[in-house]
Amino acid sequence: MPIIAPSLLAADFLQLNNACEIMNRSEAEWLHLDVMDGRFVPNISFGIPVIQSIRKATPKIFDVHLMIEEPEKYAQAFKEAGANILTVHAEACRHLHRNLQQIKSLDLKAGIAINPHTPLSSIEEVLADADLVCIMSVNPGFGGQKFISSSLDKISRLKELILKKSLTTLIEVDGGVTLENAPQIVKAGADVLVAGNTVFSAPDPIKMIHDLKKIS
Ligand code: DX5
Ligand code: ZN
After folding, report:
1. 83: which of 68, 101, 102, 203 lies 20 to 30 Å off by Cα?
2. Which structural domain range is residue 184 located in?
3. How many structural domains are present in the chain?
4. Which atom of ligand 1 lies closest to the CA of 141?
5. What is the pTM (predicted TM-score) of this model?
6. How far is the CA of 195 from the centre of ligand 1 (A)?
């Protein structure tokens, strides 16, 4: 059974309490929080004060996806705001190994996200230093995009690599996940499914989370 991480980006920002209530009444384990800086990605979302506020409304694990440059400048602040997992983009980190160590030194789980064009070989040397690898199955910056089908092969190859190295690194898949493609994504090796629009645009988000959770 995959871990389900609904992405708050697709929620109604006028009703953040309601989104947290949905989380609390659902089987979702993680809340995925997409932070965008308008530099690494061509969009700006929300940041530290919003995360700090919603921390009071749900005890779920905060899976913070930093689509920002110089993430090392803000790691401590995200921890103080309530993050449990901090994922940085390989493409945004000139010293990725150092960034992962910094996150772990804050007692947080450390994740690496890679864009669709980024080869797995670029993170192979630091795989053992990451608790999670987030395979971007869309180009980051926006919710509601179509799943890039070549991501499936990339997920399988990453799974093989993790098994070959006897690691416990989780594979998270982010972007365009639907109830239709989720079984293939899980079969390819995904441990965590991020779902924005699929969950928050569903008529019954709690049932949708339940249906995604049932996939094996
Ligand atoms: C894209 C974000 C995703 C996004 C997913 O830049 O990283 O987490 O919220 O949204 P959906 O599931 O709607 O594609
Ligand atoms: Zn994300």
Report:
1. 203
2. 3-213
3. 1
4. 6
5. 0.98
6. 7
